[in-house]
Each structure stands twice: as structure tokens, then as C-alpha cells.
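RECORD TYPE: protein structure
NAME: MutS-like protein
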Amino acid sequence: MFLITDDQTIEDLRLFAKREQAGIYDIYNNTSTRGGEMLLEKMFRNPLSNLEAINKRSGIISAYAKEGVVFPFNAVLLDSVEKYISHAGGSEDSQQTILGEKEISTGVIALIELLHSVMDFLQNGAIVQIPQLEDERKEILELLLDPALEPVFREKPGSRLSFGAVTAFDMLIRRKELGKVKTVLQFIYQTDVYISVAQVANKRQFVFPVAYPRGSNILKATGVYHPELKVPVANDLHMHAGKSVVFLTGANMAGKSTFLRAFSTAVYVAHMGFPIAARSLDFSVMDGVLTTINLPDNLGIGASHFYAEVLRVKKVAAELCAEKSLFVLFDELFRGTNVKDAHEGTVAVTKAFAGKKSSLFLISSHIVEAGEELKQKPNIGFHYLPTRMNGTVPEYTYTLQEGITDDRHGMIIIRNEGILESLATGKKHG
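PREDICTED:
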């Protein structure tokens, strides 16, 4: 049910914040609760690979977005309840912090009010209009209507309670019916995530992808862009069984890595059932998404960058041999070796990938010459990001085009920076 992915892919797509740089997770995190934050992170680490599950989650978030729903529960109440519940079940543990009388009273009163709010939401809230949540709504409603919790709903929310009543409720909540309370809290956290993502979809005008059954080999993006860019350039790309491999070329700084991140992030997030940064995305559900953009040297085992690349290709090959349907991305395949070996390796591996027609592959390379040999395979498509020269100054459109680039502007950039002049004269260039 979960997508095959790994830490390398999570790092490549910068899903989580690192060194003060925000991650994709932060874009979607508009949650009101700590539990919601934790659940959202879990969803990011475990995308779905089941069509029904993806469509259900997407439908729920889309419905909340359409209704413009705000989080219906009081965050302050939740804080009190979480603190109170976190001390439950620890009476036999000598290390457990014992709550004072006032803290117990505050926790009990907060929980009674919260459960009343949940009951009202289940009976009258936006959830009533969401068919994908009907089974869950009935399940939580049935749980709250259990005779064991009847005393909770006989109390008026916010009422002052006697010491005896607090003690009785404390015994009921933290001892006898703790499981039910925790189930309700998980329901609240899930609601928090759905509404949070729905609000992000509305605010950023993200779209909901359309999922197709596994094996249909559809991946059609229009207007896809990277959600972290302030002024993004949107691109289109259509992959299918007749073009299951895309070979991408372009000069340094032409925007290859940004496009690769934008496209693969859209594919990854679509498998979470979340809205994405694009005009539209049609995709067939895959078994896995594996990317290789910033592959580190594995110094722990004495591996060079090239050997790390070889091991990465080997890992992908093992998944493909297990008849998995994968979306695979390699940015600058075999950059860690000499040009001749990189050329031969890129051609050989890309051709082998082309033979695995139930998967989709996006391969970028500096080695434009490899493209001529790859044209022998009819299911390999070619795209490039162009460089335009304005006199001696390169300009980049960041707009994907079909074909193989013949841009060779490296020496122009080196000359523009005055490096050779500085080395010849010993004087620093402007």
C-alpha cells in the first residue's frame, strides 16, 4: 500500500527543512496541532501506492478545500487534553510525573468540552457532506455514543466540577476508556492534516492530480513548477508507454536540476493524494519513486562518487527485476567518472532502462553525444533546456523543448569570468 522510496529520494526532493532551508513539508504544514504535524510528516515519509487510497485521500482534501473549511477544534483545549492524556496509564511507573489536582481538573474539563465539539462536528460539521469519510464518521460517532461515555455528554461543556466528579471522570478517562480517547485524538489529528492541506491548496491554487490504475503508464504534467520558487517557470512533459524514457540535456545553469526536482516532487506528492504545483497532472499509480540528484560519496565504505552511482543503479535494477513499476530519475548519470566511461555507461544503462516498459525513467546528461546512439530505441524521447546567447552573455529560458541541445557555452562563461586572463597576467578580473 505504501510507495517504495528511500532517504536518498527524500533528500533529493528536499522534503524536509535542512540547515535553515525550508522543505516541501513546510509548504503543506498549516496544521493546528502537534499530532497533526507528526501525522503530516508520516504521510510525507510514506506516500501511497494504492489507487483507491490515493483517490480517497485526494477526494477528502478536495472536498474540504471546496467548502473552505477551517479547523473546527480549539487548539488551546487540545493542548490541555494532550498534556493531561500524556500522563495516563503511568501509575505503576515510579518515574511518571504525577499531575496535581488543578491539572487533572483542567484536563478533565478540557476533554469534556473537546468531546462535545467532536460530537457536534460529526453530526453537523462539513464532514457530513464528505462521502469518503462516512464510514469513519459513523465509527467515531458510535464510539462517542458508547454508554461508557454517556456521563461525558450529560455534562455541560465548560461547567465547574466538584472534586468527586473530577475524580470519577479522571478514572473513566485515563483508566477505563483511554483507548477511545486516543482514537478520537487520532481522528482530530487526521482532520487537522486534511483541512491544513486543503487550505494550502486554496491559498496557492494547487491542483489535484488525476490517478490512473497501475500499469497504464500515464504521466502527463502541464504547467508543472517548483513550489518553492517565487517566480517559477512552468513546463509540460508527457510520458507514456511509447515514451517511457526521457533523455534530458542542457547546459549548466539552464535549469535541469530545478525542472527535475519540480517534476519528480509533483509525482511524489501526487502519490500522497495531495494537491500539487501545476496546472494539471495525470499519473498512473507506481510501485515506487526513486531519484538520484545529489548523490554523496559513501566515504564510510571507501566508495568513490562513481562507485556510489553504480550502487545506486544496482539498487534500482534490483527493484526493476522484481517486476516493480517505478518512476526513476537520474540527474547527470555517471558524472563521477571520465567522459568515455560516462558516455558508454549512460548509453548502456539508458538502453537497458528502455527495455523496462512498465516503468518510467527521466535521465539527464551533459553527454549530448549519447543522444545519437539512444535514438535507436523508439521509446526514448528527447528534451532539452536551451541557452540563448545575447552577444557573449548566455541567457536561459528554463522552458523545456523537444530535441537534444547543441549548446556548448562552457568556454564562453569561463572567458566571461576572466579566469584565463587572470592566470596569464596575475591580475584579478573585475
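COMMENT: The two ends are 58 Å apart (CA to CA).
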